[in-house]
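Exercise 7 asks you to align residues with tokens for two separate proteins.
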Amino acid sequence: MSMKLSFLVAIIISFTSAQLDAQWLSQGAVSLPPNFYVASMKPLDQNVVWAVADTIVLQGPTASSPRILRTIDGGDTWEMQTIPQANGMFFTDITAIDANIAWVAVNDLRTGDGGIYKTIDGGVTWIEQLPHTPCVYLHFFNAHDGLQVNRHIIHTSTDGGATWVRVAAKDYPEFFTGEYMIFYASNNAMAITGDNVWIGTSRGRVFHSSDRGHHWSASETSLPSDAAITSIAFKDSQHGIVVSCLENVGFNPAQTRMSRTSDGGQNWETIVYQLDGPSGACIAYIPGARSTYMMVASAIDSNAPGAAYSNDDGSTWDKLDDDNHNSIAFVDPATGWTSCETTLEHPNGFIQKWAGSPLSTTTRTVPNPPDLPSLDNHFPEPASTLANISFTLPHRGAVYLAMYDILGQRISLLTNGVYAAGCHTLKTNLDHLKTGIYFYRMICDGVICTRKLTVVK
């Protein structure tokens, strides 16, 4: 494993443009027709990713010629497939349980028709399920249990999609006038964690099910009633963020507004978003991170494209770039993908993979009870010419401690020796370091601890 990827922690900062370019690595060529974009991207692990790409619909019903994208090697190569019997329809969502079994949500914007298509052979063949039923959101929890949502209508399946049962009106709250479950941008207004499902609506509310879609409740967020929820992400059954960058009347771009919950969606508090971009088109929690989210947008679906991240559950945000990003999805702090529509700069569209340091605020590879080595916060912060770096050992042990730059390259060895039990402090000379962000990492008894150090000259 490379030194860079061996970091469990890397707290992302503001980069120069050259450094920003290095954060995303272009993947194998995906030749898409003009005016296409990736509407939904679902990575299963570090190797398998399914996605659907479709025509950019700026206004009015239109025919479509959608594509299904799949990689089984982490994105080094991508297969592009079609569903001949669904040509002319619009693909809004995709869900999969492995490299072979997947389902696609289909809508015909011209006729209001739609359905679901399933493959069990990696996309070579597709069979139709739930015909003549438009579908916006689609998710399978396993090979049997699935959920389908379209505006005001919800269906569930317990047999892999062979049959579907419509959820009775008594099992979900009544919709407000003009309210519905919204489809926007990368179709990211639904979040799944375990058996829990949350879906944002066009009136700033969140519908929640704790039993895979069979029964629902609704809560009003702290967003105003004219805010359509465009994206939602949960890191566990209790903590999540909803984002709006649209007015629900006319769907005009609006100032990005955020709301956060810590009790599963029963209560919400406002987050003040202070960046000028990106807008809240697509937000994603970084699985495996403690409090890290990333948010992206493109010029097609917002007036403020770019990418930003938060390491504190959305309280503060830092911009990564101003590029076009249509979707974002991670499987762990070091592995994620973004995509964008076809443009003059990217005439075939593009899919990029995260190439920066792992997006995690967790500081150890294992829990750190008192009987394990720990790396303490240094002082001062920021530092200029000298930093006091302390660590604590529960017993005598060998300590390896080194300093690294933002790219994960070792720049100095601080110590490599045996220490007695107790707290130890190293006075570290920083004269040779330029202004910037660095990391120091300690390895002791198989425990890896990492801390961020800011140097200001």
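Second protein for Exercise 7:
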Amino acid sequence: MSRHLTVFLAAAVICGAVSTAHAITPLVIDDFDNPATAAQYFTLDTNSSPDFTQWAPKGKVLIEHTGTDAAGVPGGERDVFIDVTVGSALIYSASGEVGNGHFDFVTSHRTGTQAILQYDGEDTDSETGLLFSNGLNLDLTQGGDNDAFIVAFDQVVGGLASSSGTRTDLQLKVQVTGAGGTAEATTTVADSGGPTEAIIPFADFTGGNPFADASSVTVWFNSNSALGVDLTVDYIGTTSAPEPSTIAMLGMLLCFAGGWGYRRWRKRS
């Protein structure tokens, strides 16, 4: 066997290993497939659904999905809490849909409204805010394979930092609790008219290390209460963070060397 063919085969093996290392299937916490028959519409100006709990002065909406409406969701319940935190709640301060494969959230340009999704098992939340019943027993690392939190969007439009019209990217906050303590991270997501992802490595979280045995996961959308946000979420989960590494760089170099060597070998043979 020629030296160049040996290099080519070695490069192929290493390239395959590198590809496999970055092809880990994400752990999906919520893909919003349920409610399956139709997405559940919510808005701050109405309380037409028995699944809604809404409080005067119509600044907060709570949706608790359980049973088949939360099929596949860790802990058996999805809590959706819509909260006007800047300005007075107005008609259509915020609206959206949950289910049928997506989570939509739209806010007005006159109020700052946050959407909070929480996964902590079945409980009874209240107007004062979401409880932390810590009802999960979830390994977000999937045995050490995953090292980052991911939120996949179908589209994102950030809001206005103030009524003056200064644009700001969507702010996203994630909190995880568990036996290892409480960990939090905040990031921003740039505007995108199509699919995009927010990936937060566990190493970027501050606080404890609860990822291997999480008891609750909470995600704040528009955590800085910007005005006029519009977003659609495809799924929430964990994954392996893509990052340059020594073996990846070596793999690329060997792929190049292997290809070059193989072409020379073919010419000579």
